[in-house]
Amino acid sequence: MIADAASLTEVISAFAAGSGPVAVDAERASGYRYGQRAYLVQLRREGAGTALIDPVACPDLSGLGAALAGAEWDLHAATQDLPCLREIGMVPTRLFDTELAGRLAGFPRVGLGAMVEGVLGYVLEKGHSAVDWSTRPLPEPWLRYAALDVELLVDLRDALEKELERQGKLEWALQEFDAIATAPPAEPRKDPWRRTSGMHKVRRRRQLGVVRELWETRDRIAQRRDVSPGKVLSDAAIVEAALSLPANVHALAALNGFGHRMGRRQLEQWQAAVDRAKALPDTALPQPGQPVAGPPPPRAWADKDPAAAARLSSARAGVTALAEQLGLPQENLVAPDTVRRICWEPPQSADTDSMESALTGYGARPWQVALVTPVLVKALSSKGS
């Protein structure tokens, strides 16, 4: 594993001198460490071989990113790896996503192992996908597993390119890859505490305040200790405390998720968070539910706007039929949220130009606009706009 500046310089030189696409992968320590940083970066390129780089020992890989700037990067499920690669200075200008290519080509299973086996006929050694990649030193079997993830990625890319071309879908894929490569970094999620598992049970504002306070306390501790928040306190325990509103440490210790393995000091810090939420004035408590940007949940449409519900039903049926005809998942044909928004607030005129403009405004790529526009025009025309 490359873990010092001198070795990294050699790798940069070798990969800059290589030819063709570069296979790229990253391993994170999800469930073990705080955040989604990369703990191993794997690369392979014709003429350079394979390199496994330790981004803990070499946290700035911008030199490597710059050396590969002109190359196509081949990744599997690119959107999962790009954020952690961006953090260490590796940002592609062109990419080929073998998972997305598999979806567009209509493969029923698009995991890397299934794709390599189904397309190339090789069975990848598996078994270490969920390990703690922050472990040092990394065991030899883990490194072998990681190297195999890029061993055949370019071969897979080449085979999928031919299949997409055969199906007449290559241009679609290239537009999708360009959209991924040029997308800006995702904005931080607003009120991330609302994604606590089991939140649907919590309805009162005071209880919501407890969830928020416990979640934020847990997040600070997890970040300080560099561990996954779930290892500090479970979501289930947070919800349990919010529903119970314990009066003291003794009551808290009796709840599921607290208690037998938790020391007095830990219990006191969680009870202090509960007490802070209980002491908040009503004006400082969170509102139930999140402000919804866009249309309401489709299940409410029949009551709120029957005409919109009819449009959505017709549009969904048309999109599903077209996706089946084209042999690809309907969510890759057009984002379901885009269909909902157009059906809830349709263009003033249900004509081709207006629909194309609406789809483009919601981020649909040209290939999607061309295919979906007639379906949505028909759905909105037949059900009234």
UniProtKB/TrEMBL annotation:
<protein>
    <submittedName>
        <fullName>Ribonuclease D</fullName>
    </submittedName>
</protein>
<dbReference type="Pfam" id="PF18305">
    <property type="entry name" value="DNA_pol_A_exoN"/>
</dbReference>
<dbReference type="InterPro" id="IPR012337">
    <property type="entry name" value="RNaseH-like_sf"/>
</dbReference>
<dbReference type="InterPro" id="IPR010997">
    <property type="entry name" value="HRDC-like_sf"/>
</dbReference>
<dbReference type="GO" id="GO:0006139">
    <property type="term" value="P:nucleobase-containing compound metabolic process"/>
</dbReference>
<dbReference type="GO" id="GO:0008408">
    <property type="term" value="F:3'-5' exonuclease activity"/>
</dbReference>
<feature type="domain" description="HRDC">
    <location>
        <begin position="204"/>
        <end position="284"/>
    </location>
</feature>
<dbReference type="InterPro" id="IPR002562">
    <property type="entry name" value="3'-5'_exonuclease_dom"/>
</dbReference>
<feature type="region of interest" description="Disordered">
    <location>
        <begin position="282"/>
        <end position="303"/>
    </location>
</feature>
<dbReference type="Pfam" id="PF00570">
    <property type="entry name" value="HRDC"/>
</dbReference>
<dbReference type="Pfam" id="PF01612">
    <property type="entry name" value="DNA_pol_A_exo1"/>
</dbReference>
<dbReference type="InterPro" id="IPR041605">
    <property type="entry name" value="Exo_C"/>
</dbReference>
<dbReference type="InterPro" id="IPR002121">
    <property type="entry name" value="HRDC_dom"/>
</dbReference>
<dbReference type="GO" id="GO:0003676">
    <property type="term" value="F:nucleic acid binding"/>
</dbReference>
<dbReference type="InterPro" id="IPR051086">
    <property type="entry name" value="RNase_D-like"/>
</dbReference>
<dbReference type="InterPro" id="IPR036397">
    <property type="entry name" value="RNaseH_sf"/>
</dbReference>
<dbReference type="GO" id="GO:0000166">
    <property type="term" value="F:nucleotide binding"/>
</dbReference>
<dbReference type="InterPro" id="IPR044876">
    <property type="entry name" value="HRDC_dom_sf"/>
</dbReference>
